[in-house]
Amino acid sequence: MTDASVFDEATFTIIPTSLSPERVQELTHNIESSGGTVFPFDASAGRLKNLQEILYIVTATTDFPDYYRALDLMINVVKPTFIDACLDSGKLKNPRSYNPDSALFMSEVVVCCGDIPEGDQDAIAGGVIAMGGQCSTGLSKTTTHLVALSMDEKRCVIVKQKKLNVRIVLPHWFDDCLKVGRRISERPYLLPDPEILDIEAGAIPAPKTNLDIRDATNPEPMSPPVSTPPAHLEDPRSIKAFADKRVKLGADLNINARLRGTIAGLVEAGGGVVTENIDEADIYVCNYRDGDDYITASQAKKDVGNLSWLYYLITHDEWTNPMRRMLHYPRPRNGVPGFKKYKISISSYTGEARVFLENLIRAAGAEFTKTFKQDNTHLIAAHKTSEKYEAAQEWNVSVVNNLWLEDCYACCKNLPMTHERYTYFPTRTNMGEILGSTEIDRVATENMFFPTPRRSQPAKPKAQTDDVPASSVKKARGNSDLAAPKSPLANKTTKRKAGADVATPAPSRRTSGKENETPGTTGSRSAKLKATSALHNAADDINKFEQERKRKGGVIHGGRRRKGDEVSEQAKGKKRESSSSKRSIDEVDVDGTTEEDEATEPATKSKKARKGPLTPIKYRMLISKDERWADNKDKESKEKARLRDLGLFIADDFKNTKVDLLCAPRIVRTEKFVSAFACGPTLVSSKFIDDALKNNRIPAPEKFPLDTTDYEREHGLNIDECLTRARQNKQRLLKDWQIFCTPGVAPGFETFKKIIQANGGTCQAYRGRNAKLTASRREIDVQPKEVSQNLVEDDGDVLYLISEPSRTEMAWWKPFREFAEKNDMVPRIVNKEWLLCVAIAQRMMWKKEWELSEERA
């Protein structure tokens, strides 16, 4: 039953696009029965004539002609769910939480936090609210997501028992959404069996067809559009795209007279007319962002799009903003500045997504290469689990996700790749899911291609009475020269302070260049722009230096090697493998077609460059405590290149590369060695590398075994048996374990965290009161057989704290014991020897000498 006063004296208009007639009728009835007034939408006109009289526009999308004009007039644009929420609560809700702007990617999320640390709850709540979502303290019928760490949490039990339509996710989902600035699929994060914690989850699924790139994958249509449907079949809910509109076709379209006549006939069939006078035109269609007509039309706020956009309007007979889909807007004639020197390949995108990226790369001015070679400058990847990605890591080719390319094209600027959102790949997520969700940056495009004259403004044509007023351009200017998008959480903090005095914030116009800007932030940004303009001018050089500095070896020795460093004279004389040994990087599309992509050597004019294909990798090796390259980066670069040419790849990190060989002078207990030991690699001595460099070939690993006698004697272990258990465990020895570590334990919390994670566990810094237990009792009998047999000495209810025998560390011990007992666990405070021995033994073991107590300390 509705409250007759909820919408008292409020006026509404409902945009019927994407809504069924039944839903429109229901919304109209609910508004009017609650005191509101609904102005009918005139589908024949396709525009809102009485806009000044409307307080709320109800729509499922911002893709309607008067959207930006509505924002200028401070009219609330809300989703249909706003009406439902107001009626359910009996009072008006905050319209900002129901804004259909895609920049507010959490707008449909109502999150409830389970028993997770208070700091995590605050961070999640802040991020969700900043991105348009809502938070609730308890479960309600509006809750969409419950954040928890296990299904044992009481709220999870309620959701399961009552079969509520609530998605139970790990907090990692929110972190990853905020990092990439988009709402990604919850699938890999859903409890009780989240894929991101499963090291054997298999291939990452291909994404579903993305509506953001539907009919917008090519700026140059391959065939004429289909005719509009007969009158008796027309959808009465469609916005008439050409009703009473004048369309001018640009000279740079290069279409023949016959096709021009066909297009004119289709426009006229939709109620419009083709004109040759740009001043009369409402719509201008062209290929490139230049020419007098383009500038005149853009400055007058006419609709400017390309032929692909025009075909979309003809085919669907519904209006869409040409800046909504990037390849619906005219291209920069010379591409994005700096992109002509780039050679870009893509990995793990299929179908329409692949076509879209190929055309976007070309539109940006770069060279697209189907075959991935070492002379490629960039690889755009959907995820990390592909051979192209591995090859790019070996060759020092820059790897980014599609957001970098989209943002560069959106603002027509070569943005630095150092921002985390461009190099971050959420676990078990295909970035193709969010492909095409970026819009053209209005302010950046205006400033670069059609800056509005400051003084005398041309009179606005009569045909433009319903377009965006010029005042909106001034209000929209702000961050068009943004070097790189800020993190969503940073935006949230800044804007909360800036808009603290604003009672009812206006919805975001999405014209500042920030993907995740919080709507409602008002005030002048001119002082900020002036203060940062000098820094923006130097941003490219600074970021390039920073990128090079972060490479292994620094600015001098990182990046691409000098010509004389690639291969020694001895390696150059070695006979190359036949062309049949090329490393093939084949990727199979979802439709079953195979892309023959090969990773080969770079093309170069240097006589000293390699001419044969890159030798396939035979072994991947991790080296620890070998000092042969200490303080000699030049030698390291040369010898690693020689070893790679022989088929031996030296990895820097065991996590992203499967380690076959672990090389050290002896058994050492470094972070790299102990972590990589969990992979079950073959252990070899440093003489293995000596022999390979001396004889220019890879020797048999068994000829250079690592001497483990001293370690075995000291710790009572058989290393061969330990390696056998490691292969059985498959990095799952500590799966479902939560191990605490005091922040001050030497050599540092991060070291032990990496070792624990390498064995499938989680590590948390213990700081006393704020600790939260995320792992319940471990059930040994449900462990995989090969792992459970190595856990026979674990009772399943012991909670470990790694600490140091010092007076400072003792302060943590008593509260930890109380914390463990409160959670029905047995506390055990141990020194670091416990973890190091367990990680090498690859089985759960216990010695009393590892336990710490106040008496012994």
UniProtKB/TrEMBL annotation:
CDD domains: BRCT_BRC1_like_rpt2, BRCT_BRC1_like_rpt3, BRCT_BRC1_like_rpt4. Residues 587-600 have a biased composition (Acidic residues). It holds the Pfam family PTCB-BRCT. It comes from the Eukaryota. GO terms for biological process: DNA double-strand break attachment to nuclear envelope; double-strand break repair. Residues 538-549, 563-586 have a biased composition (Basic and acidic residues). One of its GO terms (cellular component) is nucleus. Residues 550-562 have a biased composition (Basic residues). Residues 450-612 are annotated as: Disordered. Gene3D superfamilies: BRCT domain. Residues 2-100, 100-191, 339-409 form the BRCT domain. This is BRCT domain-containing protein.
